[in-house]
Design brief:
- By secondary structure, the protein is mostly helical.
- The chain is built from twelve helices and no strands.
- The chain starts with 11 loop residues before the first helix and ends with a helix.
Length: 273
């Protein structure tokens, strides 16, 4: 029995080509917003188990600071700074400390490989995780602010500004926390950086700026959470200067965009290694 090549048979080459399977078409590229929502829901569901301890620890810490500072601060601008700083500290506890630990452990355990295989943009992973963790700070921040106003006799009229302070300060701090976790070579170092950042937010945000040395004030101006504290503290006065409040919130927004961009770059860098 002889084998005749397909090229010899008339029309054999064309028939072979016509029966060859066509290359499969790639699916459409995943869009940022649907991917972000999917990652956010997944992270929110995963972190729901630790929601009650998280809320308790973050809120109890800030309420304890308010009670402690009540013995040394009577009222006025110092009380406004203490209440605003304690409220924003709840956001810093989660965004800097816990998010740095999460991404540090994710990188060390190889969890980034899982996200790298998903058809989602890197920005969706960072923003989704940051948004999920920041969502847990809302009840604690509101409770701390209300308790602080009642403790120091401050008005509750303009506490609605927390609707802008929480997401904007949270974005700026979450970007830093995620970058700490993704850039640190070891998870222990990521935890250390997150705790140092939270300690800076505690010392530089809660204590009144008028009592700080000039060098410490300069360091305070470099901390993103400072502008969230200033924006909230300005609203406790009888006639808030809304231009300054919007200016502080704009700084938070600008730093948030930059820090989240750095975190996205750090994610790409860590995912390909």
């Amino acid at each position: 029995m002889s084998v005749v090549p397909a090229e010899v048979v008339p029309g054999g080459a064309r028939a072979a080509q016509s029966t060859a399977p066509a290359p499969a078409e790639l699916g459409p590229r995943a869009r940022l917003w649907p991917s972000l929502v999917a990652v956010y829901r997944a992270q929110l569901s995963r972190a729901r188990v630790a929601r009650i301890p998280l809320l308790f620890v973050a809120t109890f810490q800030s309420v304890g600071i308010l009670i402690m500072m009540r013995g040394v601060v009577d009222g006025g601008s110092e009380a406004e700074a203490v209440v605003a700083g304690s409220a924003v500290l709840v956001v810093a506890f989660v965004a800097l400390n816990l998010l740095a630990q999460y991404f540090g452990q994710l990188r060390a355990s190889g969890g980034l490989d899982h996200y790298a295989t998903l058809p989602v943009p890197p920005a969706a992973v960072v923003l989704g995780a940051a948004g999920a963790y920041a969502s847990f700070t809302v009840p604690g921040t509101v409770v701390t602010a209300v308790f602080g106003c009642a403790l120091f006799g401050l008005p509750l009229t303009h506490l609605w500004v927390l609707l802008a302070v929480i997401p904007l300060a949270g974005a700026a701090l979450s970007g830093l926390g995620a970058a700490f976790g993704l850039l640190a070579p070891r998870p222990e170092l990521a935890t250390l950086l997150g705790q140092l950042g939270m300690s800076a937010a505690l010392l530089l945000g809660v204590l009144p700026a008028d009592r700080m040395p000039e060098v410490v004030r300069f360091a305070r101006d470099l901390l993103p959470s400072t502008y969230g504290v200033e924006a909230l503290a300005r609203t406790f006065g009888p006639h808030p200067d809304w231009a300054f409040v919007l200016g502080d919130l704009a700084v938070c927004a600008g730093v948030g965009v930059v820090s989240l961009a750095v975190a996205t770059w750090a994610y790409r860098r860590a995912a390909v290694r």
